[in-house]
Design brief:
mainly alpha, 244 residues, two-stranded antiparallel ribbon, two-stranded antiparallel sheet, 6% strand, 4 strands, 7 helices
């Protein structure tokens, strides 16, 4: 009788990813609705004013709406960064569980090459040793570039490179651009997503139409693109759910 192959199930680690991502989007929607209601109230108040006071009030209202729109844009950047952070946490967790799985099933040759801090290894017992090796490997893994990490996991889970991988990589770079360069695209950013000279980042605008952002332009995020990213994370994470 053939020995039953143990399968690594990662569903319980994917569930918090999906929950946290949905929560981020929901919180943005709530905050955005509050801003929109405030803007509508301001416009209604101006409409009720007499013509003698309406001019100065209109200028003040335009300033307020401009500030509100800026706040909404900044919220989009924060939500986008939060989604990417949740994705990175998921990938690091998946890798640590894979290490334990390979150690438990004696598949040492399947373990990817990884430098670890030996001082972190605790060998009080077998279980403790496996967990400490896993944590040390996870810490080293998390310090590698996104492209290196996702390439490692794609190889482990036998996930072929596809459009969804390209889209996810682009969003990781978008997050980095906002974090390190206030959303302004540089030539090196285009190189990282494989775009030639004259290339661009392509994202959805508020009308769900594709908009291109070129070198030296500032990226603008929209709610439809945030929803798109959330969907990418949901679909892509399915491919790192089972391993045998």
């Amino acid at each position: 009788m053939a020995k039953k192959v143990k399968t690594l199930k990662l569903t319980k680690y994917r569930k918090p990813l999906l929950y946290n991502c949905d929560s981020l989007v929901t919180r943005f929607e709530t905050a955005s609705l509050t801003i929109e209601v405030g803007q509508a109230s301001t416009k209604a108040a101006i409409a009720l004013m007499s013509s003698s006071t309406r001019s100065s009030a209109t200028m003040a209202a335009k300033h307020k709406i401009s500030v509100d729109n800026m706040a909404k844009s900044e919220l989009l950047v924060l939500v986008h960064a939060g989604l990417i952070q949740e994705w990175n946490i998921f990938l690091d967790t998946v890798f640590s569980k894979v290490v334990i799985y390979y150690l438990e099933t004696n598949k040492w040759n399947a373990l990817p090459s990884q430098k670890i801090d030996l001082k972190r290894i605790r060998a009080n017992n077998l279980v403790n040793m496996r967990e400490s090796i896993s944590e040390a490997a996870k810490e080293a893994f998390s310090r590698r570039s996104y492209k290196e990490r996702i390439k490692t996991l794609r190889k482990i889970f036998q996930v072929k490179h596809s459009t969804i991988d390209t889209e996810m990589t682009m969003h990781v770079e978008v997050r980095n651009i906002f974090q390190h360069h206030r959303g302004l695209i540089r030539r090196t950013d285009l190189d990282k997503i494989g775009q030639p000279a004259g290339g661009y980042f392509e994202l959805l605008d508020e009308n769900k139409k594709q908009k291109r952002f070129y070198d030296c332009e500032k990226i603008e995020l929209s709610k439809p693109e945030i929803d798109n990213l959330n969907g990418i994370i949901k679909n892509y994470s399915e491919r790192f759910e089972d391993l045998s």
